[in-house]
Amino acid sequence: MPLDPAPPDRAPAPTPPGRAAAPPVRFWPVEDLPGLHPDPFLDELLREEPVTRIRLPYGEGHAWLVTRYEDVRFVTSDPRFSRERVVGRDVTSMRPVPVASQTAGLQYIDPPRHTRLRRVVARAFTGRSMQRMRPLAERRAAELLDGMRRAGPPADLVEHLHGPFPLAVLRDFLGADEKDWQGWTEAGEALLSAGAGAEERAREAARVTRARLTELLRRRRTEPRDDLAGVLAQAAATGEITDDEALSLAIAVQVSGGHAVRSNSGSMMYALLTHPEQLDRLRREPELLPRAVEELFRYVPHRNGVGIPRIATEDVEVGGRLIRAGDVVYNAYVAANRDPAVFSDPDALDFDRDGPAHVAFGHGPHHCLAAVMARMEAEVMIGSVLARFPGIRLAVPPQKVQFQRRGLIRGPRTLPVTW
Asked: At a CB cut-off of 8 Å and minimum separation 6, what does 205 contact?
């Protein structure tokens, strides 16, 4: 990777005796990768420089990048690293426009305000609510796969299942009407796009998404229902949260629960189809499915690059490096899930793996609230496919499967299968 000099806005502080000097700043373009290949830059950092400094395609200055499992868990749970301090700063980043509002919602705030908002959303994301939703999700999957069977092989599993299914489940969970949902898919993709033209697309998608969700929350004020929009609208009506907070929370769930689940679940199925021994084992041992799903979440590189950074509020040492107050810090969850110091043979897909939990859903206060729904959806999709199509296999060589390009979330655009 090319090296950049330290930015001129602040002279480097003297290095204390016995502590390594700050590493040079590396430019990380975060290019598209084939299939589910790990990022070679992250692999290199894990081996040689697990806490380093980077510059990304957008924004100003540089940031620290943390890649080791234990260091990622430390940074994401230590209150000296703040999401709220990111607001208003033009930090080096993956994309030109934030996906969600930086003035409300869960992404850019810290406890105790974060705890208050999270408590509201958690009312909808419970094990009990997922138990209620699962039969409906199973019916949705069955209907979609029956349509694929009628269409006949070869068929695109993304078109028939991984695309429409997460959106249908999210529509039911959020409470949006089916007739209002058709245009939301493209908006979700644009919100998570990168590269040339991404800024204009993201701004327009954000405007459309905000308008639709604002109207949905308005309707729930007068037509209460037992769905996420109803929970948020009621909390806003009683003054527990603001209208802007309710809107930002709904946007965050819509983005992560639609496009992200589609891509991640498609990658999971691609992983199984390219590991026929594990696929055969799941057919023989369906009771292994929850364990297999956890390993797939660890194994699949679910995103390109990095997500939302944090700002150090005071000097903190991480992995032998001194991070100064005010420095920007990114966590590489994908790298942490392949840390060989924690996961033996990390590049292997192993359903018998024991040991620490993965960090695909993050860690600490900002651990993904929708994890319980994502797990349920993955189990339903994989289980339904194997039950209805025991002979399913790729209809093209693995290298011919088209993956998304210039996006923040990795996953197949198409998944041609036969049976």
From this structure: 186, 187, 188, 189, 190, 191
